[in-house]
Amino acid sequence: MAVKRGYGQYCPLALAAELLCERWTLLVISRLIDGCSQFNAIHRGVPRISPAMLTKRLRQLQEAGLVTSPSTPRGMPRTYVVTPAGQQLAPLIDSLAVWGQHWARDMCLDDLDPGFLMWSMHMRIDSARMPAGRTVLAFEFTGAPRDCRRFWLVNEDGRVDMCLKDPGFEVDVRVRSDLRQFIEAWRGIRDLRAEIRARRIELFGSPGLTRSFPDWLRLSGLAVYPRLRHGRELKLSREAKSAG
Length: 244
Fold this sequence. Notes:
There is one protein chain. This protein is α+β, with helices and mostly antiparallel strands. The protein folds into 2 domains: about 10-90, Winged helix-like DNA-binding domain superfamily/Winged helix DNA-binding domain (Arc Repressor Mutant, subunit A); about 110-244, 2-Layer Sandwich (Nonspecific Lipid-transfer Protein, Chain A). The protein has helices at about 10-20, 25-35, 40-45, 50-65, 85, 90-105, 115-120, 180-185, 190-195, 205-215, 230-244; strands at about 65-70, 80, 135-140, 150-155, 160-165, 175-180, 200-205. The strands form 2 sheets. Strands 5-4-3-6-7 form a 5-stranded mixed sheet. It has a two-stranded antiparallel ribbon with strand order 1-2. The chain is globular.
């Protein structure tokens, strides 16, 4: 017997869940709300989705009236724009993310995606506090798969680009850390400055630049919300708070 896609209920919550609770959909619409407007930019923000699935989800969001794709001149990349109906999801997604910071399960090894970490970080770099001109940050994560341990962030007078390959510029600050520990610091579970002082997050470069690094990196927007679920992460966050 064929499995029905819908819930078979007129309840507006059920009707909304039919669309929004399919795998990847909320993450895709979240990246669009964040300002990603082209396919490759959206894919970088949801790196584990296949291109075919991303295409399918974008089409479904357009059919639902949450996203539109204006016509573009020949040879120009296609763009996607959130409609007013899609934009109304922003506070709901924000609230769900805060709930996740409070109560979702502790992270497991499979959750530690360095590509998503770097995409998130490049959206949060405070370029106004960085030196004028070009500043290059190189990251190396132990505990990550061998083919995705190194990343670069390049700030060029306020424009921050994430690079998966060496951009060929002189590096100003090198950052080396265990991937899990860095993600825990990024999420506010650990204290970033304490991790740097303890050299669990190692910085290499001129003293002036390495001292400034914590000021450049604004943590996840959810880092201000405490962990509430009992487990390893709650214990770490309490230890970080007491050490601070």
